[in-house]
Structure formats: structure tokens, C-alpha cells
Structure to design on (128 residues):
């Protein structure tokens, strides 16, 4: 939950699967729900409805996460995944990056070649 002290921004309810991966506070993952309620229309009913939506989205997010953790990827699949991310994130004119550079991972708990670990590793490098 995010809120402003002076009502200058909406009350924000977020749910998702996040993983803190670095001592400096770097977090990877994705939002399952992002509910914003303007302070002018803030009511107990709207907050409860927003919280209910967040909770329902978490169930689906956990299911997707578990599926991704159970999908094993070979090196070729990981490189293809990384290349598709490069194609989406950059047009090739500003950056020169190889798919293997997005797959480098030094975390022992993310070494298994699963879709979940590949997704998080690539996402971390793209954010940087």
C-alpha cells in the first residue's frame, strides 16, 4: 500500500510476486494488481473492494510463478528468450548487447535453468 500524507496522490494498493535480490534494495518480479483510489472518492467500501481484487490476483500470480518455476529451459531456449527481450527493449541502434550477457547470474539460488530464474535474471539486467 502506498499513500500520500497530504492527499496529493491516490491511495495505491499493489500485489504481486517480488523477490529482493540485492542488499541495496533491488527487487525483481511483477505486479499482479495495481489499484488506485482517488482520495476524493475514498471510502471503506472502495478500499475493501481494492483489497479483494489484490488478494484474488495473488492467487493467479502464485499459480503462474509456480508454473514458471517448473518449466526447465535449455541454453538455446534461454538465449532465444534473452534475444526476444533485447529485440523488445532496444532497437539495436543505441546499445550493443549479446543475449548471453543478460543470462549471467551469480546467485546460487537462481542457478537452476527454469523459466522463472531466466525471467528474473534477464529482467534484472534490463533494469540496470
Amino acid at each position: 500500500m502506498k499513500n500520500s500524507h497530504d492527499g496529493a496522490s491516490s491511495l495505491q494498493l499493489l500485489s504481486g510476486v517480488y523477490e529482493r535480490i540485492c542488499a541495496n534494495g533491488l527487487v525483481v518480479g511483477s505486479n499482479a494488481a495495481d489499484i488506485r483510489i482517488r482520495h476524493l472518492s475514498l471510502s471503506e467500501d472502495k478500499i475493501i473492494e481494492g483489497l479483494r481484487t489484490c488478494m484474488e490476483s495473488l492467487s493467479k500470480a502464485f499459480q503462474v510463478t509456480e508454473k514458471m518455476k517448473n518449466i526447465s529451459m535449455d541454453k538455446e531456449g534461454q538465449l532465444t528468450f534473452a534475444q526476444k527481450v533485447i529485440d523488445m527493449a532496444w532497437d539495436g541502434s543505441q546499445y550493443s548487447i549479446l543475449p548471453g550477457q543478460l543470462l549471467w547470474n551469480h546467485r546460487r539460488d537462481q542457478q537452476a535453468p527454469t523459466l522463472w530464474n531466466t525471467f528474473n535474471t534477464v529482467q534484472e539486467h534490463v533494469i540496470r
In short: The longest helix spans residues 44-69. The first strand starts at residue 11 and ends at 20. The CA atoms of residues 26 and 86 lie 21 Å apart. The mean pLDDT is 83.
